[in-house]
Amino acid sequence: MSRFSIHACRAAKAAIATAVVTLLASCAMVGPDYHAPAEAVPAQWAAPLPHGASLQKLGDWWEQFNEPVLLKLQEAAEADSPTLAAAWGNIELARATLATARSGGVPAVSANASAGRSRQLASKASSTRSASFDASWELDLFGKVRRNVESADAQVQARSNDWHDARVSLAAEVATSYVQYRTCGQLVETYEQELNSTTETAKATESLVRAGLSAGNDAALARAAQASTTSTLFEQRSQCELLVKSLGNLTGLQDATLRQLLVGSTTLPTASMLAVEAVPAEIVRQRPDVASRERDLASASAAIGVAEANRYPSLSLAGSIGFSAGGGSSASTWSFGPSLSLPLLDGGARRAAVAGYRASYEIAYAQWRDTVRNAVTEVEKTLVQLDYTGQRAVQAESAAREYHRYLAGAEAERRAGSTSLLTYEEARRQALNAQVELVGLQRDNVVQWVALYKALGGGWETGAPATPPASRAP
Fold first, then answer.
1. Cβ-Cβ contacts under 8 Å for 108 (sequence gap 6 or more)
2. Which of 33, 304, 376, 388 has its CA 20 to 30 A from that of 81?
3. How far is 105 from 246, CA to CA, in rounded Å?
4. What's the domain range around 272?
5. pLDDT band at residue 300, thresholds of 50, 70 and 90?
6. Count of domains in the chain?
7. pTM of the predicted model, to two decimals?
8. Does some domain include residue 265?
9. Which tens digit of pLDDT belongs to each residue from 277-292?
């Protein structure tokens, strides 16, 4: 090739490159430009807000319980949660999809090489060598690649938000199960004390019947009360065992390790009260599930642009350089040129694809609206339950106190012989029921605080990074 032809080739390449850059700069992306929708939520809360609240930040809210056992359970759950591991896998899958989408915007280059040695009859052996480089680049004339990247990037953000939503839900489930377990222990202690009382009553009544100082029906009533309390105690212990199994499933701890951790006080942890000062619109923005659905919506919008771009022509640049040598001679080849693809007749397939992606956007928009609406409703319901549970707990505490006073008087009268065993047993059952109701309402109050932490987003902040699981598959 002459020097003139070489310069001419270089000039042609430069002109083509300049034309390509100019063409790309003038091209606009087809499809809708996404704008996040406004939340259709009320301006103020309709439910009563908690009074006297002090907790202002939700980050790692379970630390506010000042309960070392709960902290260890939360750490174990996060370290070995299949749910979080699956959520992390979805993030990595979305990142791989994003990397693939980005690769569509850069040239693809491949190389091939071969070498061989051959010999024919009565001929000398000869060697052959060849090498080639191939490159191709589809120009992003109508924003197909850029919309693909936009859609994939939104999916990465959505899956990261899903991970945070799973973490918030896991923390709430662990805390709720732990509170229920502690309450279960309190109820077991209550029924054990009640069983001791009914057992002593049954023994004393049997003695009175044998002495002829009490009717035989009183002995039957005392034995019935003892058997009933024993049955209730067995049922309560089984509930505690089931809660241990639930905590084991959530944390991944071995049964022996978990039981050793749970041994100790049955005192119910106290939740720190949370000040709910933000308006509903601010609340829905700090929930990871709402943010995830909004990112899904953004991804669906960009996918419409990808489908739209497929309806337009596509232009690719391809080139190759080859070299071969053998038999004492060598040769080199090269080629470079554009390739234009025009979608002419497809039976309406591309138009249908656009319509399908627009329908997917409408579905994603409906799902986002539903998530926003459910988020506000969840907070409202939790506030209502928290308010009434607190009021009921105050009344239940007063009722339990008065019923125990009544029981103490009935017991003194029974010992003095001025009241019947039937009257005493009725007073005892009322006191027991009042105590059980009080413990249950105290449990519900703490559980509702946990539910409120979860409903408010559990301390999630936009852009917070997800954490890979401690134990990952090879």
1. 135, 136, 137
2. 376
3. 49
4. 29-105+140-314+346-455
5. very high
6. 1
7. 0.82
8. yes
9. 666 777 777 889 999 9
